[in-house]
Amino acid sequence: MSPSTVVYNPTHAPEWPPLPTWRAAFLGALGLNGNVTDAAKAAGIARDTAYKAKARNSDFAADWQTAEKIASDVLLREAWRRAVEGGRTYKFTKDGDPIMHPETGEPYYEMVYSDALLTLLLKARLPEQFSDKLRVEQTIKQEPAYDLSKLTPEDKLALLAMKRRLAAAQAETNGEEGLADG
């Protein structure tokens, strides 16, 4: 076989067609904003192209998942900033002129924090202390099934009669008299 001969090996076949160069641009944009449509536009592809590539390529699907985690971290950082670090809100007169600080002469501002985001962050980070939900744990003890083959013929008949009486009583309660004879 000459060095230029290509042998097809189905167990080690490369993905065809290979992922084009848009992959890095798409994943980078997805990591920044978490939006597939915007990421596809940034990469210059159709949204469906990205989803098809994700379905066909496990490495790309794993990278996609990582990009989504990065986007979640971006959201968490912004929520943290608004809740803990706050932001400036400049004050203006009713005419729209900036109010100036009397001592510094700089535009006057107040620091504003988001109590709602702080509450959500506390609930996410410390659910045992800040969760609104009551946590209920229940353990069900599974009894072993009965081995009916060990019953005597008389016990089996008594059990069958009891089952029929129970079915008749339920049918009578539901207004279905006469249907329990089955």
From TrEMBL:
<protein>
    <recommendedName>
        <fullName>Terminase small subunit</fullName>
    </recommendedName>
</protein>
